[in-house]
Write a structure and sequence with these properties.
The structure holds two protein chains of two kinds. Chain A is an alpha/beta fold. Chain A has seven helices and 13 strands. Chain A starts with 6 loop residues before the first strand and ends in a 7-residue tail after the last helix. By secondary structure, chain B is of the alpha/beta class. The longest helix of chain B is centred in the last third of the chain and has 25 residues. Chain B is globular. The chains are: A alpha/beta, B alpha/beta.
Chain lengths: 285, 345
């Protein structure tokens, strides 16, 4: 049996709301990561806390890996600085992404990216249940959705806010022949969940993640003229998937789901979109 | 007393695939007795199949005393005149296909004719009569709703695929998006978008108005070739995003979702033309989920309602005033979308 590299993990700050979830995730990878126990190999950064880029910049030089949770809005200068620090240190950074990082999506992704130009509609919805520890729920939803779009075109298309309120947004745009539409909603109705659809005339895909906090499997369906193929359910939480990805990055040099460079690009776009919208009154209020 | 006589004005796909089988399912109460179509070849064949009379003029059908209920499945521009004539002839009920009219003026004429004659006019908005939608709306409307988000998503294959599954259609169905139009001309594109909204989104716009009546400002409007759209309309606390595409080479999908601060309603409608039962509606709140699904389709439930109206045992579920308001809402969205598209061209 091959001996696996075991890394110690430290939480940056209190991370009280996320600590339970993190503890559960770490307990599911006991031969890869272990909380505490000497000098920390991996530092977990709570991105919902203001100033996370500065803390992450400091961590980049001393950690072998960084686990970034729910990065919140920050300035472009801060993102430049932390991106440069991470790049200089060569530190792998994993960020749990429920759509892009979903195991159900892994197998389909390369085929879909190859077909990206053929889709006429790409869109989805993110439903988030408000909670005390969720500092930037709409921003986090938008980052998840933009992260999913990014690999489709290796960039994020030009997008606009078509609707924004305290509990909803609709972001729309066009990239070539593809119409993009992303909806975000805060609601107590059901568990936080997300879905995305990619629709062309010959094929369409739907990915539905029914619960962001558990290992309830995503549903991936591929619709073609020959019928519908559903992926095999994978009962693994996106958080555990991200930890496994970080371990591979640290031991094998494998790329993580979304490079930190790309993630900073996504974060900039999300900040720009929401800031732009904040300056533009909408609706009939 | 025998079944009520139904006269079909227009013998195309809707009459053959939808109305004739739905009426047949209520054979003890309704029977097709007269078919009118300007295309004699189609009209005579459809009439022969139903064992009904054939006319090439709507007037002859409306004057036929054997016709108690008139189903108007003609081109949109003809609806107002035909509804008025049927009201003046004191028919017992009228089904008018959607959209009720292409202008608000025509819709108001229809409402006035219905009011003056006391003849109920039902718009062929089958989703509004889908038993699953009706049950879900009853549950939803019981409490107040804030911060409403509506998502209407329609992905459809070629219409012929569905009509061929529903009937042995005589004559051809013209599939939207196949007519040659120069969509590089902004005005043509805007007109295509407006027609797309009044032709396809019209199925769900009465539902959008039901759940998010305040949305009126169009903030996104795009035409998607060969036939589809993406439209967002909002108010300060409500937003509706409507998307559609056809004809795809995959399975159909027709969903309507509503989310507010405490509830999420997901409705999966069957595609048009086929009588495959009701939609499946699931209402979720923090306490759990409830799902509704029934054997009867929206089409059949609508015809049952028309028979009840004609027999005078119920009042209209959607009266003509509401029907006009539904159309005004749809026209506002369609016009707003066309203008938005022209502005951004």
């Amino acid at each position: 049996m091959t001996e696996r590299a075991l890394f110690s993990v430290a939480l940056d700050g209190t991370m009280s709301p996320a600590a339970v979830a993190l503890g559960r995730q770490l307990a599911s990878v006991p031969e890869m990561f272990r909380a505490g126990g000497g000098p920390s190999d991996v530092i977990v950064i709570d991105g919902s806390e203001p100033g996370w880029p500065r803390r992450m910049e400091a961590a980049a030089g001393r950690a072998k890996g960084i686990f970034l949770v729910d990065p919140g809005p920050c300035s472009s200068a801060d993102l430049d600085a932390v991106d440069a620090a991470v790049r200089a240190a060569g530190t792998p950074v994993a960020c749990p992404l429920h759509l892009l990082g979903n195991r159900a999506w892994e197998g389909a992704a390369s085929k879909v990216y190859a077909d990206g130009q053929a889709f006429l509609h790409v869109g989805g919805a993110a439903f988030r249940r408000p909670s005390a520890g969720d500092a930037n729920p709409l921003f986090t939803s938008l980052v998840e959705q933009l992260s999913f779009l990014y690999p489709l075109w290796s960039e994020i298309p030009e997008l606009h806010i078509s609707h924004l309120s305290e509990s909803q947004y609709v972001v729309t745009g066009v990239r070539g022949v593809t119409v993009v539409g992303l909806t975000g909603v805060l609601s107590n109705s059901c568990p936080s969940a997300m879905s995305v659809e990619l629709v062309g005339l010959d094929e369409r895909w739907t990915l539905e993640v029914p619960d962001l906090e558990t290992a309830r499997p995503a549903r991936l369906d591929h619709f073609t003229v020959n019928g519908t193929t559903s992926s095999r359910p994978v009962f693994q939480s996106p958080g555990r998937t991200a930890w496994c990805g970080l371990h591979r990055a640290m031991t094998e040099g494998s790329p993580v789901q979304l490079s930190f460079d790309s993630l900073t690009h996504v974060l900039r776009k999300a900040v720009d979109l929401l800031a732009l919208a904040a300056a533009t009154p909408t609706g009939d209020a | 007393m025998g079944p009520l006589g139904v006269g079909l004005i227009g013998a195309g796909a809707a009459s053959q695939a939808i109305h004739m089988p739905s009426i047949a399912a209520l054979g003890d109460r309704l029977r097709v007795v007269h078919v009118m179509d300007p295309d004699a070849r189609v009209g005579q064949e459809v009439a022969r199949r139903a064992g009904a009379r054939y006319s090439s003029e709507a007037g002859a059908l409306i004057e036929d005393d054997a016709v108690d209920v008139v189903a108007i499945c003609s081109p949109d521009w003809a609806h107002a005149d035909q509804v008025e004539a049927a009201c003046h002839a004191a028919k017992r009920a009228i089904l008018c296909e959607k959209p009720l009219a292409k202008t608000l003026e025509d819709a108001c004429r229809i409402a006035e004719a219905s009011r003056a004659s006391n003849v109920p006019v039902v718009v062929g908005a089958m989703h509004r009569y889908d038993p699953a939608l009706v049950a879900a709306w009853r549950a939803w409307s019981g409490s107040s709703s804030t911060n409403v988000v509506v998502r209407s998503t329609i992905w459809l294959p070629d219409n012929n695929e569905m009509t061929m599954l529903a009937t042995q259609q005589f004559g051809q169905t013209v599939t939207p998006g196949t007519a040659p139009t120069d969509l590089s001309v902004p005005f043509e594109r805007a007109a295509a978008l407006r027609n797309g909204i009044l032709g396809l989104a019209i199925h769900n716009l009465p539902l959008v108005r039901l759940f998010a009546p305040e949305v009126k400002i169009v903030t996104e409007a795009r035409w998607v070739e060969p036939y589809g759209y993406a439209v967002t309309a909002e108010s300060s606390s409500q937003v509706a995003r409507m998307t559609a595409l056809m004809p795809g080479r995959w399975a159909p999908s027709w969903t309507f979702e509503v989310t507010d601060a405490e509830r999420h309603l997901s409705i999966r409608f069957p595609p048009s033309y086929v009588l495959s039962g009701s939609a499946t509606a699931t209402l979720t709140d923090p306490h759990g989920s409830r799902t509704w699904q029934f054997r009867e389709s929206g089409y059949e439930n609508q015809w049952r309602h028309i028979a009840d109206l004609a027999d005078g045992v119920v009042t209209p579920e959607v009266d003509s005033g509401e029907a006009v308001a539904d159309l005004a809402f749809a026209i506002d969205i369609a016009d707003g979308a066309a203008q938005h598209l022209l502005r951004s061209a």
